[in-house]
Amino acid sequence: MHQVLIHLILIALVFALFFFVTAGRADGNEAKQQVVEKQVALLIDSASAGMSFTIYKQNMNGVISDMKVEDGKVFAYVDGSGYSNGYEFFTKYDVSLEKKEDRYIISVE
Questions:
Q1: CA-closest candidate to residue 90, choices 105, 64, 68, 108
Q2: Which of 51, 79, 92, 97 could bridge 62 with an S-S bond, Cβ 3.0-4.6 Å?
Q3: Domain boundaries in the chain?
């Protein structure tokens, strides 16, 4: 009986440790930054010539402090996050980024 109880306690501790580590990473700026980059890259991939879309600096993933589109990658910096690997997009069209006061406008031409 004691052995079963000890195993249950150890399993509960490992599960709690796993839960707290995962919850901490999911709410981190790096994860939010990757989500924004991926969403923008997917929008660019699915866009056709002549389309443009707006991304507001204040959104559900945090405040986007800077965004760049260069060398076939999207770079987004959320809540003052640092270095970004970027997220690749694949399109045969030219992509440009215009920065406004409260938003970014991405045009596919």
A1: 108
A2: 79
A3: 29-108
